[in-house]
Amino acid sequence: MKVNVKIFIAALIYFILLITFEACQQYYYVTRFDLAGNQGVSITELIKSHVLRWFIWGMLAVPMSLHIIKRPSRNFSFALLSRYFFMVLCTLLLTLVAISVFNLWFYGNNLAEFYEVFLFFAYQKSALFVNAYLGLIILVALINNMKLLDAKIVALSDLKEEYQDLRKKALADTTPIIQIRIGKKLKNVLFSEIIWVQSDDYCVRVHTKQGAYHLRKSMKSMEKELTHWGFLRIHRNCIVNKMEIDTIVFSQDPKVLMKNGNSLSIAQSRIPKIKAYLKSNGLTA
After folding, report:
1. Which residues are paired to 181 by β-bridges?
2. Which end of the chain, N or C, is less packed with Cβ atoms under 10 Å?
3. What is the mean pLDDT of the chain?
4. Statement: residue 159 has pLDDT above 70
């Protein structure tokens, strides 16, 4: 709304300057070449006459503006340009006719002089009126596109909020667990309860806060499953829960000290990835 007000004010200032310039220009020619004769002419009268003509122009331009508003188009085509050309031509003719009739009535002249007056205004005003129509079309199209853009921004914002709500709900409804077979039973172990995972031949040993469990899975499979839930592989034989890390030591014997007291070796090849993780979380190695 604020943008539309600014555009309206800018357009109003433009027309005020245009009318003033036209009146001053006409006043110069009339006085310079003594075109008014003994009757004389004042700048105030000329401004009034130009205001009335542009008022007629504005009133007859309203239907064209409403048409553009009701049928917005963002893609220019030959059909669209042809329609605009036809609207401008018809509006121009109606405006010239209306101004000519008004001028005859205002000065008390005979309607027989209509053709001559019409030609005078056609030569004097056509180019200026057409440019003003084109400016109006561009202005209305700009406002339409801004409204469409605002609507899309609102729609995208609503879509983003909806997505975030769905994501939060999905995360809330999906508890990350891993199922471990113990004898003939299946035990559900929360990812948050896992401290670290140890390679055990072709299987793994899952160390949790309640104890250690054997699981028939590969370290590669476990890494793929746990990485998105806050786990970090520090060795080909070890994956740790980042939340259970107490201290990381980078020395000749790099290692991770866990909160439960375990000391786990870091492979030299994994150090860059661990340092990158620390950097991404605002920590220093």
Report:
1. 186
2. N
3. 84
4. yes
